[in-house]
Amino acid sequence: MNNLAKLFSRLSLALAVTCVSAYTVDAQSNRKLVRTGNKFFDRENYRAALPYYEQVLANDPNNAEALYFAGISYMTFDKEKAAEYINKAQSVKPNVDRDIEYWLGRINHINYRFDDAIKHYQAYIPNIRKRDDWRREEVSMLIQQSRNAQKEVANPKDIFVKNLGGVVNSEFSEHSPVISSDDNYLLFTSRSAGNNQSGSKASDGEYFEDIYETRRIQGDEWEQPRSIAGNLKSSGHDASIQLFDNDTKMLLYRSVNNGDIMYSERQADGSWGDAKSIGSNINTADFESDAFITPDNQRLYFSTSHYSEDGDLDIYVSQRQRNGEWGKPRSVGAAINTKFDDDSPYMAADGSLYFASRGHNSMGGYDIFVARYDSVAKRFARPENLGYPVNTPDDDTYYRLSPDGSYAYLSSYRIGGYGEKDIYTINYIRAARVTGRVYASNDSLAIPGLELVFNGQQADKRPISYRDVTKQEDGLYDLRVLSGRTYQVEITKDGEVLTTESFEMPMVLNDTTTIEQNFYIDFGDDTTRVTSAPTLADRGTSTDKAASMEFKNIYYDTDKYELRAESIRELDAVAAFMKANPNVNVSIEGHTDSRASEQYNMTLGENRANAAFDYLVQQGISPRRLVTVSYGERRPTAPNNSSANMQLNRRTEFRIIQRQDTQQEVPVN
């Protein structure tokens, strides 16, 4: 029995012995209703229990016990209402139950009130009995998860999360999205009534899981989903897992034998054939929950409780044998598997393993993690939390990339959804091309030689900046900027700021979008101050040491962005030079080798630039004098054909940006 089940069992017992102080007819009626609700609560059938608690509250809105247990029941599918009920229960009767502080911690955590959650968890610890040491360990973990969540939410990723919509999602749970290789056919699992003709329900009062299919109409529009029950219909749960063998076969979960991995083949008429076991080396008498077959059909990653002493899920891998059967499984290793549930493995095209885990540095419940494969060490690196908003304080599972890797599907419970778990898309915000010209408002000729600086922020509030100069031949500027934010565009000529304008860059989810944006500067009748502005040399300013200074690159280990000892020495030199030259700003440019995907390398390059940025700020350099840029693998200094060359490409470069403004920033020393 897991920890939550233990607690529900204890709560059910507490509910059974709840006394009603007044023996009026209404009080007796309420007591009977509570006892009836308790029967369903004890079987974890919270939807069936709730009407009885609600009847009590209709008679007595301040019945603390009914509020309390109704609130716990609502946590399975309506977190906001759960918070309302549990908080009211405590206000009516502060000591309504020994575990009230625990549940207040849980409800504050999933509603993003992390400081309050930690306070409630800490207040709960003295109430834990000595015989319940497992609760003490659990609460310690929950406190750490609140701290993890607080950190991740304060530093969001540049990611756009979108609900797949009401055609696919319902008031019940939808999960396990599976997309075809052409990106137009979607399988998913739902607990809605749908085509469940018999109306049969599981012990928790909800419909059994069934697999549904739908096809894309266009963009984000989908056809009305259809159940694919047919030959796959069983008396229990059936859930989609994966399409493989050119979409002719499907992996699925079936709740037989405590949970097994099955497969089905598509028939000539387009229907799916009978489900068959994936093999005796995979399926055991214990729980097998999810799986993934690699594109070459040679490896099967799956999650099972069979090899765990405590019954938690771990991820194992099996190699296909010459006879076509799956071989004896082996663990993917302690770097990935924890003493908590590790589930839902998915292998990306670049060899990275994505999975859901309740362990590691989870924000709460299941989080999505990625473990990059180190081809040199022949093992997976330490898993990374994908961060907020991919992950939330609640369960986030079944992460699957689209065929081209430009976006992903996942299932999670989020505030504002349609009901329980919904299916969402995760779009990785892209950079887009912005091009145009700068005109004098009283002239149709574009002005060459103007510098445009687009200043904005990443999602975590770090400054970003992009720059270009209008060309002599056609007055055109052309650059790529991160989409989905507002930029302050500073237009200068030889260091003199001519104007600053706001430009809203729309969100772009592909790499081919071009936005045209022209700017206009009002000079009255005097355009010569721009078109014939003096150069630095004309002003008598010679090129000094600051203009010609070059810094050494700093380098990184494979797939790392931690600063080396020799890097610190070079960064100290950069900081000292900037303090001595207040007219100088510095562009910090992160680069990588070509081992991972371009998307991953852009993030890694960004992390490397940010590491240098953070160190320089710690040394007293104003963040307004620093700009971070990631080029990922796009600007190699050597071919990525040897370990020595790859080391040269794993670098951060520093480029001086000379400013000649009359109003200069005084550096923070």
Backbone shape: globular
Number of helices: 14
Distance between the termini: 59 Å
How many domain units?
Answer: 4
- How would you name the CATH homologous superfamily of the largest domain? TolB, C-terminal domain
CATH fold name of the largest domain: Neuraminidase
Radius of gyration: 30 Å
Fraction of residues in β-strands: 25-35%
How many strand segments? Answer: 35
CATH class of the largest domain: Mainly Beta
Share in helix: 25-40%
Domain OmpA-like: 543-660
Keywords: Cell outer membrane, Membrane, Signal, TPR repeat
Signal peptide: 1-22
TPR repeats: 30-63
Overall description:
- By secondary structure, the protein is of the alpha+beta class.
- Strands 2, 3, 4, 5 and 6 form a five-stranded antiparallel beta sheet that branches. A four-stranded antiparallel beta sheet has the order 1-23-22-21, with no helix packed on it. Strands 7-8-9-10 form a four-stranded antiparallel beta sheet, with no helix packed on it.
- The protein is globular and about 85 Å long.
- The two termini are 59 Å apart.
Helices, strands, pairings?
Blueprint: H1 3-16, H2 25-42, H3 46-59, H4 64-74, H5 79-92, H6 100-110, H7 114-124, H8 133-154, E1 159-163, E2 174-179, E3 185-190, E4 210-218, E5 221-222, E6 226-227, H9 229-232, E7 238-244, E8 249-254, E9 260-265, E10 276-277, E11 288-293, E12 299-304, E13 314-319, E14 330-331, E15 342-347, E16 353-357, E17 367-371, E18 373-374, E19 379-380, E20 384-385, E21 396-401, E22 407-412, E23 422-428, E24 431-440, E25 451-457, E26 463-469, E27 476-482, E28 485-493, E29 496-505, E30 514-516, E31 519-521, H10 528-531, H11 545-548, E32 554-555, H12 565-580, E33 584-591, H13 598-618, E34 626-632, H14 643-649, E35 651-658
Parallel strand pairs: 24-30, 24-31, 33-34
Antiparallel strand pairs: 1-23, 2-3, 3-4, 4-5, 4-6, 7-8, 8-9, 9-10, 11-12, 12-13, 13-14, 15-16, 16-17, 17-20, 18-19, 21-22, 22-23, 24-27, 25-26, 25-28, 28-29, 32-35, 33-35
Helix pairs in contact: 1-2, 2-3, 3-4, 4-5, 5-6, 6-7, 7-8
